[in-house]
Structure formats: C-alpha cells, structure tokens
Specification:
Elements (H helix, E strand, L loop, with lengths): L1 E2 L13 E7 L5 H10 L4 E5 L6 E5 L7 E7 L3 H15 L1 H17 L4 H17 L11
Parallel strand pairs: 2-5
Antiparallel strand pairs: 1-2, 3-4, 4-5
Helix pairs in contact: 2-3, 3-4
C-alpha cells in the first residue's frame, strides 16, 4: 500500500515513497526482508516496532527514495497505516494539522530524521485516537 504524505494529494512531502507491505502468517517476515535485501535494491534499517514494522530503504542517507515498511497482515501497525492514510485522504482538518506539524518539525530537525520521525509520531497517534473526525471539512 502506498502510504505516507506522498499518498495524499496536495500535502507537503519529502520526495520519498513510503510503501507498507503486509505479510500474512504463512510467510516468515524475515524471509521477505532477506529476499528484498539480497536483490541489492534495499538496505535493512531494523525493526521500528509497532509504529513502523521492519524498515527497508532504497538509497543512501539523505538520498533515499523509497521506504518499505513490512508488517504483519493482522497487526495493529497495518490497521493504523490504513486508518491514517484514509483519514488524511478524507479529512481536511486532520490533513492540515498533520501537514503543519510536519513542516514545523522539518525546520526543527533538518538533519535528524530519527528525531523528526519520533516527534511526528505524537500527532499521528493523536489523530488516530480522536474519536470524532472533523465534520464539515471532509473532501470527496
């Protein structure tokens, strides 16, 4: 699934494609990671935990072009990735709030991707936990 800001038309985004791959129980996730890394196209960056899954990247450092997050098909991470993408696609207020925080954090952490990502996690969690999405601001 195409995720992240590049999956949402009109939102500010770094030129990095975020892909989330859900792997079923019958396929060992480690084997998927090993296969993708063996091609030479991706580097394994480690387990990002419940919020990110196993992370593979394409391209070195600041020249990265693709992030692949591998999660279990029934995991909370998969559910959250799907819910957050749908929220940003349908709720203008949530989209604007997220974009505002992202832009502020990008200025605050221009050379610290990890700090940027960790700081961004709180607004993502708050938007996902909001029991009442914005009304009157949804788009088609």
């Amino acid at each position: 699934m195409h995720a992240g800001s590049t999956a949402v038309p009109g939102i500010a985004a770094k030129p990095i494609l975020d892909i989330v791959a859900a792997v079923g129980d019958s396929v060992p996730i480690d084997e998927v990671v090993d296969h993708l890394c063996a091609t030479g196209a991706y580097n394994y960056e480690g387990d990002q935990g419940d919020d990110g899954g196993l992370l593979l990247v394409r391209g070195p450092g600041e020249l990265r072009t693709v992030h692949v997050h591998i999660v279990g098909a029934g995991s909370q991470a998969w559910v959250d990735y799907r819910r957050f993408r749908a929220l940003l696609l349908t709720d203008a207020a949530a989209r604007e709030r997220y974009e505002s925080v992202k832009c502020r954090l990008a200025q605050q952490y221009p050379h610290d991707r990890r700090a940027y990502t960790l700081a961004k996690a709180s607004v993502i969690r708050a938007l996902l936990d909001d029991p009442e999405p914005s009304t009157g601001s949804q788009t088609g």
